[in-house]
Request: fold
Amino acid sequence: MTETDKKLIAEAKRVREFAYCPYSNFAVGAAVLGESGTIYGGCNVENASYSMTNCAERTAIYKAISAGEQEILALAVVAQGIEPVSPCGACRQVIAEFRIPHILMANLADDVREMTLEEIIPGAFSKENLEQ
Ligand code: THU
Reply:
């Protein structure tokens, strides 16, 4: 793991404290590294209409894109658990959209699992599939 990887995990842990999760009580934090070098953190934000929930990963990715980042170099996600937290299918599809090449999954005990884009969502549906 690089120093940048460690910084991403630390930021994901920090913003996890801001998670709005009164329904699941499962707090998640994420952080992404933009091409500018800036790190953006995000937490899960739940809703009484459960399906409106936004996962931590998507919060962080959308913050980076909204700030003008055109490329995201890495993503870290952290939650409490026996194993490092695993991004949901919807977040994997968003990770595919922005072709994030390096994904770090961690828990609070600092167990870390690293994956490439192809490992996290093999054969993802992408804009190339829309070409006719
Ligand atoms: N959640 C995330 O934010 N990221 C993940 O990788 C897994 C799930 C959130 C969604 C919901 O608020 C809570 O965790 C329980 O599913």
Notes: Residues 3-16 form the longest helix (14 residues).
